[in-house]
From TrEMBL:
<keyword id="KW-0032">Aminotransferase</keyword>
<dbReference type="GO" id="GO:0006487">
    <property type="term" value="P:protein N-linked glycosylation"/>
</dbReference>
<feature type="active site" description="For Fru-6P isomerization activity">
    <location>
        <position position="361"/>
    </location>
</feature>
<feature type="domain" description="SIS">
    <location>
        <begin position="215"/>
        <end position="356"/>
    </location>
</feature>
<comment type="subunit">
    <text>Homodimer.</text>
</comment>
<keyword id="KW-0315">Glutamine amidotransferase</keyword>
<comment type="function">
    <text>Catalyzes the first step in hexosamine metabolism, converting fructose-6P into glucosamine-6P using glutamine as a nitrogen source.</text>
</comment>
<dbReference type="GO" id="GO:0097367">
    <property type="term" value="F:carbohydrate derivative binding"/>
</dbReference>
<dbReference type="GO" id="GO:0005975">
    <property type="term" value="P:carbohydrate metabolic process"/>
</dbReference>
<keyword id="KW-0808">Transferase</keyword>
<dbReference type="GO" id="GO:0005737">
    <property type="term" value="C:cytoplasm"/>
</dbReference>
<dbReference type="GO" id="GO:0004360">
    <property type="term" value="F:glutamine-fructose-6-phosphate transaminase (isomerizing) activity"/>
</dbReference>
<dbReference type="GO" id="GO:0046349">
    <property type="term" value="P:amino sugar biosynthetic process"/>
</dbReference>
<dbReference type="GO" id="GO:0006047">
    <property type="term" value="P:UDP-N-acetylglucosamine metabolic process"/>
</dbReference>
<feature type="domain" description="SIS">
    <location>
        <begin position="43"/>
        <end position="182"/>
    </location>
</feature>
<dbReference type="GO" id="GO:0006002">
    <property type="term" value="P:fructose 6-phosphate metabolic process"/>
</dbReference>
<keyword id="KW-0677">Repeat</keyword>
Amino acid sequence: EKSGYDHFMLKEIHEQPTSIQNTFAGKLMELEGTVRMNELYLNPEQIKHLRRATIVACGTSWNAGILGKYLFEKLAGIHTDIETASEFRYGNPVLCGEELTIAITQSGETADTLAAVRSSKSYGCRTVAITNVVGSTITRESDSIVYTRAGPEIGVAATKTFTAQLITLYMLAIHMGRTRGVITADEAKDLIVNLKRLPGQIQRILNRKEKIKECAQQFADKRDYFFIGRYLNYPVALEGALKLKEISYIHAEGYAAGELKHGPLALITEETPVVAIATKGHTYDKILSNIKEVKARNAVVIAVANEDDKEIEKYADMVLRIPASHEMTSPVLSSVVLQLLAYYTALAKDCSIDKPRNLAKSVTVE
Ligand code: M6R
């Protein structure tokens, strides 16, 4: 069943070149610069008049939702909030009918996410569910259902379903951005071309996984890890930290890099590896400054950077490379690197990778 892999998690990481292709199959209209989203029961007028979107999710799906917020704001010009479903349901959300709630849930069964959708509906919001499981509870509760089509995921740690969620969010954002006239056909085409390149680029990362394995082994005995990133790489940092803590039991924090000096910098010593997502984009120089900041506290810096980036070698102790991609789409590639880093760290520590202690694949109780 594991098709020769030692763990389901490793198998599922390796399935990503294919699962991503399944996620976007038949949807990317490269020549027209549009994305076909027939499953979205929102007509163009409704999309144009959307005032706000709220994304609700838990765990890894919540991390995907942060990227979703940035994409909807940048590509579709829709003010977007992202809320942890368990907080949303007991808060006092101010919602009205011209708004959209987007629930992201791999299993479609997470109790808090289901409750958040029910609560949004009671305010008259339209609801969209992004889920991987056909016929799951969320599909009976939402107006529109967008399937991520990543195939069944057995490992408790979400991997291929996370990247499928990201791809779905790109497609939704491009679709809404074109409908609202926020991005041009050429801008959409550029993104679509970059999305289509991702499967091959992920394969390239997988083919060179030995370097990631060596890096993981080198730091597997550490007690604490930091992951830092800015803007689109911030959710990548959060997800990298979540993966590491859940399967290797190493304490890991994901931080918006600019927040470091507001407290956590006090924890950085030569014993704390810091993973910095330093891919090319408009926050590149800023993350370099953050790397210098932690280097000054003697931290070991592992950078995730582009293949052609020579400069980064001056700052980082170790560099894990990803192929060049659009600033908006590179988070998918960086995430795969961090999945492998977590996997090989847990392997070096002989942890129960597919069934980490205390965790369940779907959390059906609140
Ligand atoms: O099925 P869901 O996406 O609603 O699950 C939400 C979280 O429980 C889930 O993403 C969890 O954080 C992951 N298994 C972590 O890898």
